[in-house]
Every structure is written in C-alpha cells, then in structure tokens.
Amino acid sequence: MKVFEKSNIDKICFSNRIIRSATHEGMADDDGFATDELKKLYLRLAKGGAGAIITGYTGIQPDGKSPLYNMTMIHKDEFIPKLKEITDAVHEYETPIILQIAHCGRQTRSKITGFPTLAPSAIRDKFYSEDMPRALTVEEINTIISNFVSAISRAKKAGFDGVQLHAAHGYLLNQFLSSHSNRRTDEWGGSTQNKFRIISEIFKRARESVGNYPILVKISAYDNQKNGIRIDEAVEFAKMFQDVGCSGIEVSSGVFEDGLYTMRSEALPAEAAMAYTFKYKTLPSIIKSIATPLLKIFLKQPKPLLKFNLDAAEQIKKTVDIPVITVGGMNNIKDINHVVENENIDFVSMARPFIIQPNIVSQFQKGDQAASKCIMCNYCSLIGEERPLKCYYGKLPKENL
User: Fold this and answer.
1) Is the pLDDT of residue 111 over 90?
2) Which of 27, 78, 208, 308 is the least crowded, having the fewest Cβ atoms under 10 Å away?
3) Of 49, 56, 59, which is closest to residue 79 (Cα–Cα)?
4) For residue 119, what are the β-bridge partners?
5) How many CB atoms lie within 10 A of CB 230?
6) Which domains does the chain have, with CATH numbers?
7) Whose CA is closest to 185, among 194, 193, 174, 172?
8) Residue 298 confidence class, pLDDT cut points 50, 70, 90
9) Helix, strand, coil % in the chain, rounded to nearest 5
10) For 89-105, how does the pLDDT look when each residue is reduced to its tens digit (9 = 90+)?
11) Is the pLDDT of residue 401 over 60?
C-alpha cells in the first residue's frame, strides 16, 4: 500500500502517510511547561506507528492562551528544555514531531488568560460571548507576528522537525483570514491579500530567523458563518501559502461558532456539554434536564460524518504543488488508502482515532484492524475544558453520573 511507503514534506521524512493531527492534550503544568505525562503520550504515538506527530496547539503569548485545560506554552526560552526532552525521546523511534503554534484571539476568555480578549475586529464571538474582544492595534499585530517568529525559533532549538501555524477553527490567524471576523479597513483587512498579510509577514520574518526550516499550516477551507471562508477563497489562500514558502497545507473546516462542524458526531453530546462546558455547567439542574433532550432533537448535526474535508483538499491540491493533508472523518484504512492512491492527496491525518488507540497505525499496517474503535461521541473534546485528553467512549466520569 502506498500509504505505508516512506515520504517527505520538505526535509521531514515520514515512515508512512498517516499523521496524528494536532489535538489539545491539556498535559502541561499550570505554567504551561510540558510534563512527563505529555512525553508519555507522544511516545505511545511514536511506538504505535504514527507517520508523524503534530502536537496540540501551543501558545505563543499569554493573552492568546487556550480556554481549554492547561495549554502547553512556548512564549519564553525557559520552555525549551522540557520540550527538547520530548523531541529527543520521540526521535529515538525515528518519528517526526511538528509543533503546532497558535494564538486563540477572541476564542478564549479573559477569565482564563488574565488579559483582555483581542481580535482583528471588535466582534463578539457567539460562543465565547462573555468577552467583547478589543480590536488589535497595528503595534499589537506586529508584536504577535514577532511572537510567532520567536516561537518558531524556539521550536527549532527544541528539536522539532518543523512547525504548523494554526490558521484554522476560528483561532486568531483564521480570524484574520475570514471576513466574518476581520472587518478592518486598513492594510490588515478587506481584500484577500490584506487579510493574508499577517501570514505573509510571519513567513517573511521567520525565514530571516530560521532559514528553510519547515513551516506548515492548518486552514479551515470553509465554515458555516455569514461572510466566512468558502472553498474558492481558500484555494486563493493556498496559492498564497505556496508563494510565501509554506511546506504543506492541512485542510480542515469550521470555527467554534459552528458547533461540532470540525469534530462531527452522529448524536449531540449534550450531557457532556451540560456537565463541562463553561456556558452550561452552572445552569440550574431543572433547566439542564429540560434543555438536554430538546438540544438533541432540534440541534442538527452536520453531515457527512466521514471524509468531510476531502473535496476541499482535492480542490486545493489541484492548484498547488506542495503536499496537502486531509483531516476530518478519516477513520478506516480502506478510505485512507483510497484517498492516497486515487485522490491525489499526499497525506491523511486523524485526531480522535489516536485518542482511543495510539497504536492504530500499527494495527492498520499489520492487518489486525480495518477501522477505528472511536464512536465519535466527542466527549473527549468537551470534557477537555476541565481535564487532560482522554477517551470517554460516550460516558461521563463517575462523579457526573
């Protein structure tokens, strides 16, 4: 099978074409330092045959910290030694590891970060509606660019094989790319070129700092927001990414305001949302008991459940020469092999299948398993607001039963 052949993205050598997609682990300590628990997780993935590991998103500055539990940070040199322990350990298994870096922008809470919430424009996020974000000044935009570049430099010093800019799922770089969240009238908004400016500046300044070090990107090729990103504009962005020297593009979709657009499920995980999501967990029990069944009935889940970003990835691949990765509902070896063999897509990445089974690639390769055991309940994502990454298999922890 082609999927199990060695391949490359830029200077990074992969043992196969199945990548562990970035997944928030919540396994840093309270100050954002990587822990032994995080190292053990990556080692399980490396031993389990992952072609490469993309880490969970890592914060480039404190005011962009994740609202989820204990985000890993890289905004100071002091974070490098613990991260270097991880890369050294993973490399013993000849597995590449790529650091995803991010600023959450308006998709966080000042209660979590301790700072005002910032965004390209002062537009309230429908989910994180407690905070009205303040529009970034040009000086602040340049500081964020510098901090992305510093994070890339630290990632290189820490031994990561490359970095991935998180420009998907409604986080800050995605907020700049989308006319839904970027309504600026200066050089940082308006036209497609202006919306892309923050990305092009990160690449330009990073190349001056780290040379030809591999820099990948994750994008949302489409979402469900008015004036949001659509595939035709995503194709234009992809060309721009190639032009500025991007090493590879992972194609995803959706933003937080879309609900479970990014991580789809057959049934709405209403019980987990009511127990762990900050917007709902403090509601009176009587309201929860009424709202939970109603949400399941009236809040429709997006379809399809499988391969839902493949069409977007195919359209992008037709216009660029750099590697393209598709993610989203890729959970069985038949589909994965078909995509790589017949759809001209270079790599497939998965998130949830690796949570329940870090060795799933080895199982695929040995022929011991044809599909993931993941039931796509999404409890892992919702409970991740308060706890480290874990598969819950559709069941709440005992104290919430």
Assistant:
1) yes
2) 208
3) 59
4) 135
5) 13
6) 2-259+304-370 (3.20.20.70)
7) 194
8) low
9) 40, 15, 45
10) 999 999 999 999 999 99
11) no
Distance CA 206, CA 162 (A): 12
User: How many other C-beta atoms are found inside a 10 Å radius of the C-beta of residue 80?
Assistant: 18
35 and 27 in contact (C-beta within 8 Å)? yes
Query: 93 by DSSP, 3-state: which?
Result: coil
H/E stretch holding 216 reads strand 215-220
Name the least confident of 1-5, 88-92, 154-158.
1-5
Location of structure tokens 């800019």: 165
Q: How much is the mean pLDDT over the chain?
A: 95
Of 32, 151, 157, 40, nearest in space to 90 by CA = 40
Backbone phi, then psi, for 199, in 5-degree steps?
A: -70, -50
Is residue 166 within 8 Å of 155, Cβ to Cβ? no
Give the residue among 255, 252, 296 at the shortest CA–CA distance from 272.
296
* Interatomic CA distance for residues 50 and 68, integer angstroms: 25
Nearest to 19 by CA among 190, 162, 120: 162
Residue 237 is inside which H or E element, if any? Answer: helix 231-243
Nearest to 357 by CA among 344, 369, 340: 369
CA distance 350 to 354: 7
CB 245 within 8 A of CB 277: no
Q: Write the pLDDT tens digit of every residue in 185-233.
A: 999 999 999 999 999 999 999 999 999 999 999 999 999 999 999 999 9
Q: What is the pLDDT of residue 130?
A: 81
Tokens, residue 387: 């706890």
Show the DSSP H helices in 29-137 as ranges.
Answer: 36-47, 80-91, 110-113
Query: Could you tell me the two tokens for 69?
Result: 């539990």
What span, in angstroms and rounded, lies between the C-alpha atoms of 4 and 383? Answer: 33
Give the Cα separation of 300 and 287 in Å (integer): 20
* CA 185 – CA 176 distance, rounded (Å): 12
pLDDT reported for residue 393: 96
